[in-house]
Amino acid sequence: MMKTLVKRGMLLIATLLLVTILAFVAFSIIPGDPTSSILGVEATGEQVAALRAKLGLDLPIWQRYLQWLGGLLTGNLGESYNYAMPVGQLLATCVTHTLTLAGLAFALIVVISLPLGIVAARYEGGVVDRVLTILNQITMSVPNFVAGILLVYLFGLVLHLFQPGAIVTPQAGWGPYLWYMLFPALAVALPRSAMTVKMLRGSILREMGQDYIRTAYSKGNSKTSALWRHVLRNAMIPVVTFLAMTVADIMAGSIVVEQVFGIPGLGKMLVTSIGNRDYPVVQAIVVLIATVVVVCNFAADLLYRVMDPRLRGR
Amino acid sequence: MMLQVEHLKITFPHATGHFEAVKDFSLTVEEGQVIGIVGESGSGKSMTAHAIMGLLERKHIQVSGSIRFQGVELLELTRSQLRAYQGKELSIIFQEPMTSLNPTMKIGVQVEEALRIHTKMNAKERKARALEAMALAGLPNGEALYHQYPHQLSGGMRQRVMIAAALVLRPRLLIADEPTTALDVTIQAQILDTLKEIKRKEGIAILFISHDLGVIRALCHHVVVMQQGEIVEAGPIEQVFHHPQQEYTQRLIASRPTRTKLKAGGSHG
Questions:
Q1: Which residues pair with A234 in a beta bridge?
Q2: What is the pLDDT of residue A301?
Q3: Do residues B123 and B224 share a domain?
């Protein structure tokens, strides 16, 4: 187990290193120059050369990469070309918004889909199961930004549960802040929750048909105790993997849904910075998102091993 | 009479109407008696065993006739009343030791599960009894196995774990549904020896189901021969084995593999 942990940990670091290289190289080879967005198209050759030297863009790419990586490791993300302020400081609020949104969306997926999946499987073919199947089909086929628009309309404009467009920051207190994030998080979570319910239901029903469940019944277990004591842990194994893969989608979904709800998160910052060729900002965002996804997958991998004894030591 | 089965009929829905898996089956088992049911695949012997154990899905499968256990009509019990017998008075071991144990649950927990369900024993008492049952099932190193998982054990060991779990509450009747079919010949002989030992020590009644009359002969007093859901022959094992009255029984005797041949996979009864 310890050996696997070390091996996985090394793999995690290697993956992140690769991400930094890709992020750096990709934005260095795409056409466009940060100097032209700062100085405008009418700048003279000397002005451009002077600015390039000032930003360090005249150095060879590997040297610039190592410099940037060194900064990254010491927590210095560099300075934004456009906003003339440290990237860390610039991104602090955006990151809080997006990570809160994504975290809340993930929590909602778990809270919504686990009970529903279990109920649907326990009472397979019953009224709840059939209603859920229909709702699932609908929810799964609605993209998150459409769900977002509908939620803004229904809860914002009709029911006035929140004010669309108003920005709430964590300084307002965690209660109001989470309430502000609840509806966008719901928009991100709904399509994924539907998929998770469907997956968990299928997984439970598959396990219910296994030989070891027959053994459980033969010892005097009821259907409910067989479900809780025997099925659930086995049925959750594929669902945990699915949820880990969901993290990447939640991050992407959060960035899209932020636009719908007018939240000044990473999404807006990312789009603006790509347009401006503000490389330090873009690279920082890409590395941050990749880190969240990779770390969540790492955590899922460990959890997977805890849940399935057959995988331990492998 | 401990177990009395009369005119048992098992029907389940099928693509072409209804299929009668068991047409008319009657059997009595006295305390401590070891009875074999033999028949080829599809003869209804496993279906009968599952019916006695109350494991058939009531929603889809129709069971009629009578199954009386110690005077109680099991077919008239509600599901929760029946659960009081399952694992306590009646136990079963299955043909597939590789898949009959929960892969994510420790051996010890699975062996003592019936104790947790049917008794108020505390963890220490349960473990002590579980280790006793494991020793009886031919697992003397129970303490080490207690914290292991099924995938760490061989097929023969897993079947012994199943036996230990089935015996942990000292049931009156053990149903063994082709318990050695999926195992290779040497392991099969060892498991049979263990069952014989259990029979001798515990005086438990065993209903032993197999397609192999030789295996039944090694263990049972009486045998019932089944074909297509019906009993075609019944009697003391030596009589049936040496003087089979039916051509079907003769064929079963003739078709049994000799000890020198390795037996290929199992068959569902």
A1: none
A2: 85
A3: no
CA distance B261 to chain A (A): 29
B contacts of A216 (beta carbons < 8 Å): 102, 113
Pick the CATH number of A90-276 from 3.90.1150.10, 3.40.50.300, 2.40.50.140, 1.10.3720.10: 1.10.3720.10
Alpha-carbon span B140 to A91, nearest angstrom: 64
Nearest chain A residue (CA) to B56: A214
pLDDT 10s digits, A192-215: 999 999 999 999 999 999 999 999
CATH of the domain at B186: 3.40.50.300
Closest of B187, B116, B101 to residue B149, by C-alpha: B101
Q: Does B59 touch chain A (CB under 8 A)?
A: no
- Tens of pLDDT, residues B131-176: 999 999 999 899 999 999 999 999 999 999 999 999 999 999 999 9
- Whether B105 and B80 map to the same domain: the answer is no
Contact B55 A230 (CB under 8 A): no
Helix axes A2-29, A61-73, angle to 10 degrees: 130
pLDDT digits (tens, 9 = 90+) for A35-92: 777 777 777 888 888 888 877 788 888 888 888 899 888 888 888 888 888 999 999 9
Q: How many CA atoms lie within 13 A of B72 on its CB side?
A: 12
Structural domains of chain B, count: 2
Residue B170 at interface with chain A, using a CB cutoff of 8 Å: no
